[in-house]
Specification:
The chain contains four helices and nine strands; from the N terminus they run E-E-E-H-E-H-E-H-E-E-E-H-E. Helix content is 22%, strand content 31%. The strands form three sheets. The chain has a four-stranded mixed β-sheet. The protein has a three-stranded parallel β-sheet with strand order 6-5-9, with helices on one face. It has two domains: 64 residues, 2-Layer Sandwich (Nucleotidyltransferase, domain 5); 88 residues, no CATH class. The protein is α/β, with parallel strands linked by helices.
Length: 164
């Protein structure tokens, strides 16, 4: 038995699979299954007989990127730190004419009505300044559920610095 290392890229049309085993590289392509991307991945791995010795699998996809660029995603809610619900609206203030008061902004992917804030705060090192208030989280989830969102993004200030 030898370890199998696999890299997979799921695109809108094709799913590409690169397999490394015993120093030998195989490249394989299957049709993507947009309604369930895992089907194309598993079909390809089965055709390559790679499942039983699989040690490492790295997966990347342009599906989410394309959905964002084309604005074709499902209704999405955003849970964020208290005081940061309008960051999507404010943006980075980088625009060709900084002082143009009539600038036409692209609407945020998540409308204001689907952005909810929770009470919590980490500092830039990931240290807890204010522990997550679970009641505020419950209220946020209830709000989004009642709004009928199909997906929820969670973006808390400095959360990358504290993976726990």
């Amino acid at each position: 038995m030898t370890d199998v290392l696999v890299g997979i890229d799921t695109g809108g049309t094709f799913t590409d699979i690169v397999l490394l085993q015993e120093g030998r590289l195989q490249v394989f392509k299957v049709l993507s299954t947009p309604h369930d991307p895992s089907r194309a991945i598993l079909d390809g791995l089965r055709q390559l007989d790679a499942l039983k010795d699989l040690r490492v699998l790295v997966h990347g996809s342009t599906v989410a990127t394309n959905a964002v660029l084309e604005r074709k995603g499902v209704s999405t809610g955003l849970i964020t730190s208290a005081g940061f619900g309008d960051v999507l609206e404010i943006g980075r203030q980088t625009r060709p004419k900084l002082y143009d008061l009539r600038v036409q902004k692209v609407p945020p992917l998540v409308p204001r009505s689907l952005r909810v804030e929770v009470t919590e705060r980490l500092d830039e090192r990931g240290e807890v300044l204010v522990a997550l208030d679970e009641d505020s989280l419950d209220m946020a989830l209830t709000t989004l559920q009642e709004a009928g969102v199909e997906a929820v993004a969670i973006a808390l200030l400095f959360s990358f610095a504290n993976p726990e």
